[in-house]
């Protein structure tokens, strides 16, 4: 598929042929959902923890006699039914991550790129070379109408652009190897440089 290439000033800078195997797939929500869940689960800290019956600070002395009270038989105040007692089967420190094959993760990234292309939210830009001035870049971004945009550069991010974009709300920039399904779907506009397109095609083929 062919797409127009623009520059930061909004002018046309030719066109580029995008690989149908990356940008022309019919997006599948089930594949995208599985990859996003894999990403978010791996990012989850899993540091939640409650004290069990054996960990609460209570005496283990029998609280009252076994028989003759007319109530239940209890041996310790740390039982889960008492206030301040241990929690039964509560959360413990653990990893929430799970495995997903490289082949499936790569497929998910292809479907994310295709979803943006199909929705008309994909922009290819010639390059992101800039003076490094935040004010100048902010005006260019506002003129282009990018409110929540992810910019994917080549193997390395242009330092001047990264510095200028650092304080602009809603603008994020990643190298090609950092491109991922969650960040792509989270933004309204996906902007890829020509170098980024070439690097993505090389990475995903």
List the topology elements.
Elements lengths: L1 E5 L5 E6 L2 H4 L5 H15 L58 H17 L3 E4 L8 H11 L4 E4 L6 H7 L5 E4 L6 H6 L2 E5 H11 L1
Parallel strand pairs: 1-3, 3-6, 4-5, 4-6
Antiparallel strand pairs: 1-2
Helix pairs in contact: 2-3, 4-5
Class by SSE composition: alpha/beta
Oligomer description: single chain
Here the CATH topology of the largest domain equals: Ribosomal Protein L4, Chain: A
- Total number of helices: 7
The CATH architecture of the largest domain would be 3-Layer(aba) Sandwich
The figure for the number of domains is 2
Produce a short descriptive summary.
With 205 residues, the protein is an alpha/beta fold. Helices cover 35% and strands 14% of the residues.
Can you characterise this structure?
Helix 4 packs across helix 5. The chain folds into two domains: 2-45 and 98-204, Ribosomal Protein L4, Chain: A, CATH 3.40.1370.10; 50-90, no CATH class. It contains seven helices and six strands. It is elongated, with a radius of gyration of 27 Å. A six-stranded mixed sheet has the order 2-1-3-6-4-5. The protein has helices spanning 20-23, 29-43, 102-118, 134-144, 159-165, 181-186, 194-204; strands spanning 2-6, 12-17, 122-125, 149-152, 171-174, 189-193. 35% of the residues lie in helices and 14% in strands. With 205 residues, it is an alpha/beta fold.
Features:
2 domains, 35% helix, 14% strand, 205 residues, single chain, 7 helices, Ribosomal Protein L4, Chain: A, 6 strands, six-stranded mixed β-sheet, alpha/beta
């Amino acid at each position: 598929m062919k797409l127009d290439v623009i520059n930061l000033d909004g002018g046309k800078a030719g066109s580029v042929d995008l690989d149908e195997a990356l940008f022309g797939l019919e997006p599948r929500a089930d594949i995208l959902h599985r990859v996003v869940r894999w990403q978010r689960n791996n990012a989850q800290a899993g540091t939640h923890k409650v004290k069990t019956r054996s960990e609460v600070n209570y005496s283990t002395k029998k609280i009252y006699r076994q028989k003759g009270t007319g109530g239940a038989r209890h041996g310790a105040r740390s039982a889960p039914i008492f206030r301040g007692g241990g929690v039964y089967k509560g959360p413990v420190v653990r990893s929430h991550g799970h495995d997903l094959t490289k082949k499936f993760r790569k497929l998910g990234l292809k479907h994310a790129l295709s979803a943006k292309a199909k929705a008309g939210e994909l922009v290819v830009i010639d390059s992101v070379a800039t003076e490094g001035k935040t004010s100048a870049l902010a005006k260019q971004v506002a003129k282009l109408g990018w409110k929540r945009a992810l910019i994917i550069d080549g193997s390395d991010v242009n330092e001047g652009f990264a510095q200028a974009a650092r304080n602009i709300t809603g603008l994020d920039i990643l190298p090609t190897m950092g491109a991922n399904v969650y960040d792509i779907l989270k933004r309204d506009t996906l902007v890829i440089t020509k170098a980024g397109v070439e690097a993505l095609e090389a990475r995903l083929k």
